[in-house]
């Protein structure tokens, strides 16, 4: 037996063993790491709370309902045609946080306004249908919001926040 033929066969076998050991080691390391990475994903109960579906059919024009999404109150207001017209007629130069009414509602659903029910000053819950602009009034420090949830007067620096939502149908929205 020559040294060259013996070395080639043993070298090929050695390479195969090294590649196999590396492959099994890589798969084993991935199997050990995966549970640690997977435990950082949200649990099923958290995922269930991440979205909320709301039936809008029982809400009358001019009515505001409060629902809970991710443990936060959310106002859903079915605005009247007069409220929509008043919100659209506002000069953006008058607003501390300029934003058009169209930017705050979904296309084709101008009557529906969905906002987080937390004053942007210190997080108090504003009262509906109150204040100088017939929208919301925060009793904590006196912020006034209009019918589009935009800040008009008071210490609050920003408009009421619009959460992510979409219309599932004409009478159903999915928040989150």
From TrEMBL:
<dbReference type="InterPro" id="IPR019470">
    <property type="entry name" value="Ubiq_cytC_Rdtase_Fe-S_su_TAT"/>
</dbReference>
<dbReference type="GO" id="GO:0051537">
    <property type="term" value="F:2 iron, 2 sulfur cluster binding"/>
</dbReference>
<dbReference type="GO" id="GO:0005886">
    <property type="term" value="C:plasma membrane"/>
</dbReference>
<comment type="similarity">
    <text>Belongs to the Rieske iron-sulfur protein family.</text>
</comment>
<keyword id="KW-1015">Disulfide bond</keyword>
<dbReference type="InterPro" id="IPR014349">
    <property type="entry name" value="Rieske_Fe-S_prot"/>
</dbReference>
<keyword id="KW-0813">Transport</keyword>
<dbReference type="GO" id="GO:0008121">
    <property type="term" value="F:quinol-cytochrome-c reductase activity"/>
</dbReference>
<keyword id="KW-0411">Iron-sulfur</keyword>
<dbReference type="InterPro" id="IPR036922">
    <property type="entry name" value="Rieske_2Fe-2S_sf"/>
</dbReference>
<keyword id="KW-1133">Transmembrane helix</keyword>
<feature type="domain" description="Rieske">
    <location>
        <begin position="87"/>
        <end position="174"/>
    </location>
</feature>
<keyword id="KW-0812">Transmembrane</keyword>
<feature type="transmembrane region" description="Helical">
    <location>
        <begin position="16"/>
        <end position="37"/>
    </location>
</feature>
<comment type="subunit">
    <text>The main subunits of complex b-c1 are: cytochrome b, cytochrome c1 and the Rieske protein.</text>
</comment>
<comment type="function">
    <text>Component of the ubiquinol-cytochrome c reductase complex (complex III or cytochrome b-c1 complex), which is a respiratory chain that generates an electrochemical potential coupled to ATP synthesis.</text>
</comment>
<keyword id="KW-0001">2Fe-2S</keyword>
<keyword id="KW-0249">Electron transport</keyword>
<dbReference type="Pfam" id="PF10399">
    <property type="entry name" value="UCR_Fe-S_N"/>
</dbReference>
<dbReference type="InterPro" id="IPR017941">
    <property type="entry name" value="Rieske_2Fe-2S"/>
</dbReference>
<keyword id="KW-1003">Cell membrane</keyword>
<keyword id="KW-0472">Membrane</keyword>
<dbReference type="InterPro" id="IPR005805">
    <property type="entry name" value="Rieske_Fe-S_prot_C"/>
</dbReference>
<keyword id="KW-0479">Metal-binding</keyword>
<dbReference type="GO" id="GO:0046872">
    <property type="term" value="F:metal ion binding"/>
</dbReference>
<keyword id="KW-0408">Iron</keyword>
<protein>
    <recommendedName>
        <fullName>Ubiquinol-cytochrome c reductase iron-sulfur subunit</fullName>
        <ecNumber>7.1.1.8</ecNumber>
    </recommendedName>
</protein>
<dbReference type="InterPro" id="IPR006317">
    <property type="entry name" value="Ubiquinol_cyt_c_Rdtase_Fe-S-su"/>
</dbReference>
<keyword id="KW-1278">Translocase</keyword>
<dbReference type="Pfam" id="PF00355">
    <property type="entry name" value="Rieske"/>
</dbReference>
